[in-house]
Design a protein that fits this description.
By secondary structure, this protein is of the alpha/beta class. The chain is built from 12 helices and 14 strands. A 10-stranded mixed beta sheet has the order 3-4-5-6-9-10-11-12-13-14, with helices on one face. Helix 2 crosses helix 3 and helix 6 crosses helix 7. It is elongated, with a radius of gyration of 22 Å. The N terminus is likely disordered.
Length: 350
């Protein structure tokens, strides 16, 4: 009978582990396990996130032995976008494949001095918001930390980016740990070194993830609000039944006032639905004594939706009414609608 070496079989079946997306603590554990000098972890991090190495052979300040041992058991898995669409207004939408999850989209929005990248945290989404094409996809899967960071690393405009917004596909707080780890790497001096003030994470208001985010990250928070009335909001955002407005506001108010950062509230304006004086007064009560800002957005029609967008004068009147109540309010300019890149339109449909 032929002898089978099961150890060799197990070794041959073991896939190299992707190191892209590891934080400094994980890299330090790796270095310790190999018995390498402790400073090697920081060197690897700098190569991954500052110099954007995609092969261990490029890490020239590591010894040949260390590079060889790394390459024998680990990989740097990064992925260029497979498609780019250009809007008439200069907005660019990138399509990325993600392992076992299909595709995701990211949007680069160039303005004068501001260059914003809108990135995804999930493939699809399970929140089911009635005004969002991504929600109609359902959830295909959570992105890994590396897949989140890859969207920043792998677009041609990488070095132009001034601002990041987690407002692409998915609910970031439904993938909390990967998002928090990506924020750590994006803002760390050994990582991308982006200012936390230049990064905003948007959520429908998943509780208690709001508290975890406020305590573990210095980045900006945006709440997808759309109405101050609970029943009306449940119709727009079905998952808000599990995360009612009262709980969301309690989580925000529980954060010490002296440490409270300005919260953004995203508010899509729907014709004859959520812009009455009744809404203005209720918003003033709901947001009382909270350092906040409201961004008004136009609704971008999607197939089968009964919602419509009001005219610009109606949106401006709503903004002025909120301003008169002492609520700082701006109208966010729509970008990339002609390539399905505007708010609520991401769906990986070609």
């Amino acid at each position: 009978m032929q002898h089978v070496n099961h150890n060799l079989i197990r070794m041959s079946e073991t896939r190299p582990e992707n190191i892209y997306g590891w934080d400094l603590q994980q890299l330090e554990s790796l270095v310790t396990g190999y018995g390498w000098p402790s400073y090697t972890a920081r060197q690897i991090a700098l190569w991954l996130y500052k110099r954007h190495a995609d092969d261990f052979s490029q890490m020239t300040n590591l010894s040949k032995k260390i590079r060889s041992e790394l390459a024998s058991s680990h990989i740097i898995s990064v992925q260029d976008p497979v498609e780019m669409q250009l809007s008439a207004d200069g907005t660019k939408k990138y399509l990325f494949p993600v392992e076992n999850k299909g595709y995701i989209e990211s949007v680069f929005i160039p303005e004068d001095k501001r260059k914003t990248l809108c990135i995804s945290s999930q493939a699809g989404c399970r929140m089911g918001c009635r005004f969002c094409m991504t929600g109609r996809m359902g959830l295909k899967g959570n992105l890994s930390t590396g897949e989140i960071l890859n969207q920043v690393r792998s677009i041609p405009e990488r070095d132009l980016i001034t601002n990041l917004v987690f407002m692409g596909m998915g609910e970031p707080f439904d993938n909390l740990e990967a998002v928090l780890q990506s924020l750590e790497i994006l803002t760390a001096e050994w990582g991308f070194s982006l200012s936390p003030r230049r990064i905003t994470v948007s959520t429908i208001g998943v509780v208690p993830a709001i508290g975890a985010f406020l305590n573990r990250s210095r980045c900006n928070l945006a709440i997808s609000l759309h109405t101050p009335f609970e029943e009306e909001r449940r119709e727009m955002v079905p998952m808000s039944k599990a995360h009612p407005l009262a709980d969301i506001m309690a989580a925000i108010r529980s954060y010490p006032i002296e440490k409270q950062r300005r919260i953004s509230f995203e508010y899509i304006v729907f014709k004859d639905v959520n812009h009455s004086q009744h809404h203005v007064k209720a918003l003033a009560r709901l947001l009382d004594k909270i350092r906040c800002h409201i961004n008004l957005l136009s609704f971008h029609p999607i197939p089968g939706s009964s919602y419509r967008s009001p005219d610009q004068k109606t949106i401006e009147a709503f903004r002025d009414a909120l301003d008169n109540k002492g609520i700082m309010t701006t109208i966010r300019k729509s970008r990339g609608e002609d390539i399905q890149a505007a708010c609520g339109l991401l769906s990986c449909l070609k």
